[in-house]
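Interim report, section 4.2 (structural modelling).
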Amino acid sequence: MSRSLRVHATGPLALVQDLGRPGLSEVGVGRSGAADRCSFGQVNRALANEDAAAAVEVTFGGLEVEVVGDGVWCCVTGAPCPVAVDGREVGSHTVFFAEAGARIVLGTPTAGLRSYLGVRGGVAVPEVLGSRAGDVLSGLGPAPLAEGDVLPLGAPGERFPLVDSVAVPDLAEHVVLRAVRGPRDTWVRDADQLVATTWSVSERSNRVGMRLGGAELEPSRDEQLPSEGAWRGAVQVPPSGEPVLFLADHPVTGGYPVVAVVVDADVDRAAQLRPGDPVRFRWVEAP
Amino acid sequence: MTRASVALLPYGDRAILVELGSTQEAVAYAAALRARRSEAVGEIVPAARTVLVVAGAGAAVADLRQALTEVSPEPSAAALDDAPVVEVPVRYDGEDLADVAGLTGLTEEQVVAAHTGQTWQVAFGGFAPGFGYLLGEDDRLNVPRRTEARTRVPAGAVGLAGEYSGIYPRPSPGGWQLIGRTDAVLWDLGRDPAALLSPGVRVRFVAVTT
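Predicted structure of the assembly:
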């Protein structure tokens, strides 16, 4: 019998994610994929999956799934959270086996925002343009999970998981993101305000972008910037002056000045910030 | 095109923003980059005056910077001649046709003639999957966006804004001046490629009455 996961509860937002859709920017399709690529990669390595095997990105816990058909090896990475299998706590960042009929429940993370439930063989919903990523901006890929959804699972590969547990990420509270100044730093009066301010992550943040409150970067000119390509990590300043840090589902082009771009490796850490969390930036040189 | 107008601006640790003088130059630069793909070049995102170039997987930005210094864009006319042509039938009954006539000093018939009488080329995408910013051959139809955006523009609506024309691939909010509507399907996931228009493709609008 084929294996699947039946969804009984989703928490605030649960999405299937993988490495996304590279190479389609020119037709208006952004990359999307796991918001925290580091934790996503970790779950597939733990389960000896292909790098691109899809997992469930769980925002702030609350996911409950039932294993259907046959047992499956699983692991939860990213934001550390309680993980229970039929009421027995197994913990995140461990590789565990869930029998057919077992219910896997993810609790509220003790730190961070996004956890990744991986299964051996990956989640095998149909691909859209070569990816199973749910893109909340373009609407491509599977919709956010809903109660009653059944997620087919892929055939396990030939390799077996070799580890019992993986490293728990350090999601320390005082986050300082490295950023390269520019390209449009002269479009605000004082781009150094970005690194001088302790920002607060806004409630109005999502996979498209993280809005930051705490100060306003005042524009330095009246003219409008013609649309420019955008990328994950870009810090865009809309007319309100409150910066937006682009995450996985960012628009392909944007019309507001990008005053700084966060170093790629630090964007994964940014994706684990919760609304209300403080965050700072520091300048680093462009490579 | 003069090479002096090309500036390489920093864009984090994975990309470089290439700044050019005009949309034509950005189109030509992106085409030149596509023509000589190297491992240092990953995603290419052309836009109005710039081309964002992301380093290829495993390549460093320093490699990308080196690769970009070797790009020499052809004049855009050469790129225009080889590109495929898509004919798009349009009913010119858009809600803003009269406004566009007023703004351009043309009659409505002359607006239609100007829109159908030139070859447009997809300069870049970005607003929604399948949307292309189309650049024409002259500036007769250069009009500002509407002062108030519409909350809903239907799929297939043909509009003008600034130096561009465009077709809404799906219903969405929008601020472009609407001059007509097409039944052409801009975006279809059941089709390969899904997008009817991609950068470089040329477009001829054809007036239809039904």
